Amino acid sequence: MRISLIFLFALSIVFLNTAFAAPASPLKKSVQPVAKPLVAPEPVPAVTFGFDLNTRYTTQAEKQADGTRSEYITYEFVPAIKTQDYRFRAVADFYYQVKDQTGNEWDNTSFEATINKPWNIGEYFDLKPEILVALPVFRRTTDFNNYIGGRLTLILKTVNIGIPDLKFKYGLQFGKLSYKNEMTGTDYNIDTRLRQRLHLGYQFTKELSAMIYFHYDSNFLYDNSVKNAFYHETALSYAFNDNVSLDLGIANGGGVFAGENQEIDNLKFYNEKSSEVFLTLNLSI
User: How far is 153 from 130, CA to CA, in rounded Å?
Assistant: First the structure.
């Protein structure tokens, strides 16, 4: 009898515990992540075309002793073709004389071929090779026949020196000029040319940047002499967007030495006779 009472008591405890226990939480189904459909990357075009039109108004910085001041507009047409590995472009300049249209003329058209990705030559520098050709495609009055040369440009990796907004490039260019007739005049006696080019720039903001360009030519003449020349320009550039920008700057160039006996040092940042100021509108498509 005692065993029966104990058994009934234990059974009642189990029943009460089951009746008043918190209901078991329903089993949660495991949430499977929803697989997003794979989006194929947009294919990179094998060939892309571009076109730049740069319009520059240039005037002499100072009025000359005879009361004149030259003014001209340069229209620069730059079509380009880009493949996955290479880039080709042509540069054709037309000079429009504001005061005397009889002087309007095309310059020689240059053609450039280069690689898209420069050669990596270390932690701090890249090297970019270019092939250069110039022809009088549109030019009417010239004995110039062609120019064939090449250029190597050393590019500083400014990110690796902690100044990412700095731009620095140094180029060494060499080429041979040829003419339709053998010429000995001062304008047509350059046999080969060695050109050193320097680009120095700084990006202040996304829109505003500054640039200094300088080149120094060693012109080797047919009479085995050498005449040196230079050109430089300094400009501020403002980019309205990726396709439109405006440049304001000053330029100077000419022979390194001037005068009848080349006795005057003419390598100057500013020269009251030859310095020019310019305003350029750059359009890129």
Answer: 8
Question: Mean per-residue pLDDT for 24-37?
Answer: 56
Q: What are the E-state strand segments in 61-189?
A: 71-83, 86-97, 105-106, 109-115, 119-120, 125-135, 144-156, 166-179
Instruction: Tell me the two tokens of residue 129.
Output: 């090779």
Give the helix ranges, DSSP H, for 106-228: none
Q: What is the pLDDT of residues 35-68, one digit of tens each?
A: 666 666 777 688 999 999 999 999 999 888 888 8
Are 193 and 170 contacting, i.e. CB atoms less than 8 angstroms apart? no
Burial 93-105 (b: 16+ CB within 10 A, else e): beeeeeeeeeeee
Burial of 134: CB neighbours in 10 Å, binned 0-12, 13-18, 19+: buried
Cα 70 to chain centroid, rounded: 29
pLDDT tens digit sequence for 187-198: 557 889 999 999
Contact 36, 252 (CB under 8 A): no
**Geometric angle at alpha carbon 171, from 75 and 125, rounded to 5°:** 125
Nearest one of 184, 255, 194, 193 to 222, comparing CA atoms: 184
pLDDT of the residue at 72? 96
- Taking residue 43's Cβ as centre, other Cβ atoms within 10 Å add up to 6
CA nearest to 179, candidates 189, 164, 166: 189
Number of H-type helices and E-type strands within the chain: 1, 16
Return the structure tokens found at 270: 């500013």
Show the tokens assigned to 183.
């010429």
